[in-house]
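Why does this matter for the project? Reviewers at the last site visit asked to see concrete outputs rather than summary tables. In response, this paragraph embeds two records directly. Each consists of the residue sequence and, immediately after it, the corresponding structure tokens. Nothing has been edited or filtered.
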Amino acid sequence: MSAGLLSADALEAAIRAVGAGRYHDKHPFHQLLHGGKLNKGQVQAWALNRYCYQSAVPRKDAALLSRVEDRALRREWILRILDHDGTETEQGGIDRWLALTDGLGLDRAMVVSMRSALPATRFAVEAYVRFVREQPLVEAVASSLTELFAPKIHRERISGMLEHYDFIDDTVMAYFKRRLDQAPRDADFALAFVRRHATTPELQQGAIDAVRFKCSVLWTMLDALHHAYVAPGNVPPGAFTPEPSDGE
């Protein structure tokens, strides 16, 4: 990136270029997952560990809201918390993710406790929450812009997993189907905010770097899964160990 101020369109192009090169749809673990190359135990491990991220999203968004003076931004951003935590009348994303782990045969109490998640997963997720809490607001908002790239991976996941795994059905894929509508709405709002408020070269570079950071968080989570559950013999002590029948 040059030292000068980018136009809003050039800034958006730079952010999209980060996703084109670094988004986790390119990770080998996802290629295996979507291509039907994992066994049930490995899919269970993915769903269990990803729950740590799903459950942290409302905390991340609440941390951002606590810093926001602008009522309009708060009104829009609070929808993200409701999308994940749900309301009295509508199931949220966390409940839909638990429907996935239930459908995969995982004990719900074990999933919710997160005690069997990989240490690297927990560290990566908490690094993301801390980033949003501590970094400049434009960067905190920009870190959510991986949602620009999410609908593609959700569509691939829905079609690939339904096609390749006999233990996956429409019910357990409800989370991803709902995000096909929610993610573009959230990304459009966050992108407009960053285009409007990244008004210096430093803020623009910070926004681009924030998207890189978020891509690294997601990539790190898959690195840990691949190391523990695809490469043999690397499950750390205390982490989820698939049943022997699931590993054959």
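We now turn to the second protein, recorded in exactly the same manner.
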Amino acid sequence: MTDSINDLLPPGVKSVMSKLPAEVTLRLEEIRIREGRPLEILYGGKHAFPDSLGRLFASPQNAYVPGREECSRLLDLLTRHSLYSYEEELRRGYITIAGGHRIGLAGRAILEGGKVKLLKDVTSFNIRYARQVKGCGVKVLPLLIDPDSSSIHHTLVLSPPQQGKTTLIRDLVRLLSEGTRELPGGRKVGVVDERSEIAACVRGVPTFDLGPRTDVLDGCPKAEGMMMMIRSMSPEILVVDEIGTAEDAEAVWEAMNAGIRVIATAHGRDLAEGSSRPALKRLLQEGIFTRLVQLTRQGERFETKVRELAGQRLRQARAPDEREARPC
């Protein structure tokens, strides 16, 4: 377990986690802490309920149950004893900590003008582990190369949550920045990391390896950040995670029309589901993206399919001896 997560855990939960089998600890993906309800973990694509001795059960009857004091302590540590200074994070429903680990929050929403102002009485925490998997993009990148521009195609990475989107684009950034056989010398890459998950910056410095020619704008809203990056850092390739608003889509469109190649991720099981989202509909209908990467997962097995995208028409993208890649 990483120190940044371990230091946050309240004593009871920390004790349970310390007793888990080593093979489980190494494969941890999520810790779900819910006030007055069973502690749950996800590891290797499986879920289980641990008891106070670290034994795992498929049903919650014997599970350890965190109480109010433990949840209050966790929130206090997450916000560094100042809810006010974390008002924006509480409004968005998550806090990202050192290492790129994201803690999702749920509780009672306080509204202002019909919109969420902040979360109060937080009683559910989802601690999601972030890990760098170097090399998981090696088989994918050749399928994204656009030889006509000596760069890459505009690429959309599409999948439901927790299928490896961020892990994949993190490695693609590293490879593009370092340079590969297909793109020697590397490229200037700009990363707009609104959730601090791609680079896991600490005081603006990435803790994940994103390569030597990468600039990161950390904690900045994507739409504004993309425009800032274009004006200030002249990237050749711009990378953003989880586009979802009309403003995001407009900024992506502006970047593409400024001659910058874009890699973006979005939630969706397939093209039809992605196209149903207003933020993506225009970009997909106008054929802006020319490569589609779809990620699926069964347990610990990840599968990645890269396809050529022309308007609404799909066909398998090809690279030498490689029609399908499994990056993670």
